Amino acid sequence: MASDTFVGQRGERRLRHKEFVYPVVVGTCAFYLGKKATETQSHKWYLYVRGVSGEDIGHIVKKVVFNLHPTFPNPTREVTVHPFEIEEHGWGEFELNVTLHFADDAQEQPVEIYHKLKLYSEVEPGNQSTKKPVVNEQYEELIFSEPVEAFYQRVSNYAPPVAFQSTIAPHFRTFEPADDLQKINHARQRVAHMMANVKHQFESYA
Ligand code: SLL
Description:
The chain has a 4-stranded antiparallel beta sheet with strand order 7-4-3-10. By secondary structure, the chain is α+β, with helices and mostly antiparallel strands. It contains 2 helices and 10 strands, in the order ββββββββββαα. It has helices at 149-155, 181-203; strands at residues 5-7, 13-15, 19-32, 43-51, 61-67, 76-79, 84-90, 95-102, 111-116, 134-145. It folds into 2 domains: 5-169, Sandwich (Immunoglobulin-like), CATH 2.60.40; 176-206. Strand 1 (5-7) and strand 2 form a beta hairpin. It starts with a strand and ends with a helix. The protein binds ligand SLL. It is found in: Nucleus. This is YEATS domain-containing protein. Residues 14-158 form the YEATS domain. Its main location: nucleus. Keywords: Nucleus, Transcription, Transcription regulation.
């Protein structure tokens, strides 16, 4: 049965009662510099947004803006291609703001996600290793509620080509829905809430 559609505010055709969900992972991966550590550069770290399997998410996300702590030069960093990742050196932990901008045909507002850069392991705080990084990842689900029909048709059955892997891919966590069900449900609600404003905007046109 063909889905019911309606026309949104900008004349775009949307799928009524449909939801398109795309999971992503936001993470940091920090290596202690050991003998090379200085007062202002004790760690080399990476910050990224990735597909759950490390796949290229460029068909959904056109740009990621990473907002770093103001102690960094040019703290606003934009990445428009896979891997959506930056590499930095620093000395302190802080809260990062990550903004995801979606492909134009999705016609959705950007979404902001907060993430903590961790340099020190909570389990073994004194045990710093130059080989084993401290990895902090969070699972998020991007929920496109009543998506634009053309966007949905383009992405719903699209399998991203196997992209070259990030150099830190061996340190990525795996996310098993059964193990992380609680976290996943929490992420679903949070991101769904952020994206819901667009849906409400269009409800009056239903
Ligand atoms: C803290 N509230 O006091 C945090 C701030 C800021 C970390 C951490 C800058 C590196 C550079 C840097 O690592 N800032 O200057 O290039 O722990």
